[in-house]
Description:
Blueprint: H1 3-9, E1 17-18, H2 19-22, E2 24-29, H3 43-62, E3 66-71, E4 85-95, E5 99-109, E6 116-128, E7 141-142, H4 146-174
Parallel strand pairs: 1-7
Antiparallel strand pairs: 2-4, 3-6, 4-5, 5-6
Bound molecules: coenzyme A.
Amino acid sequence: MTAWKxxxxxxxxxxxxxxxxxxxxxxELALLNDSNPLGYLIGGRVMHLVDIxxxxxxxxxxxxxxxxxxxxxxxxxxxxQIGELVIVRSSVxxxxxxxxxxxxxVYVENLMTGEVRHTTSAYLTFxxxxxxxxxxxxxxxxxxxxxxxxxxxxAGARREYRLEMKKRLQAENDD
Length: 175
Ligand SMILES: CC(C)(COP(=O)(O)OP(=O)(O)OC[C@H]1O[C@@H](n2cnc3c(N)ncnc32)[C@H](O)[C@@H]1OP(=O)(O)O)[C@@H](O)C(=O)NCCC(=O)NCCS
């Protein structure tokens, strides 16, 4: 059985999934191979990890393969030194029909001192797919904590803005 068949047969409960059930964390060492000439980790590597970390949480929520539909803007607050540990935490803030907003936060840990800094945050939208080119419905997110409920509410306004921006960009590209 292929991976996507396995995933889509593992049905989610109809009532939904809590945020905790799909929250994810990945980490990797910043290595020289991904450094810029100043000896810091290149932004593209962080963007890659943000995409992967976000996809894991979305896929856990949907129990299906997902594709990235959009990435909201990203700020890089601190440089990451080679040898530091990059930690990527992700959780699904809200889902709609086939799409999900995932919040991703990147931290960097200095393994020698234990100091941890927040370096980047982003919101990504993933769409659940069936592996044959079709989109599939996902179950609702069940927010539990006050912070999760706040993020759930705020995700609605962000989605409206995102879809409006998509429409405007498409209109500009069609000009
Ligand atoms: C993302 C993608 C699946 C959307 O497909 P589409 O046929 O345009 O579908 P729709 O307009 O019906 O959108 C599907 C869902 O995604 C949402 N969506 C689409 N574009 C979006 C965007 N830019 N930002 C946020 N949400 C978006 C829609 O609101 C809809 O959500 P809902 O079903 O929960 O209501 C499709 O464009 C695609 O496959 N893109 C390539 C994805 C990819 O390969 N990513 C990796 C990087 S190359």
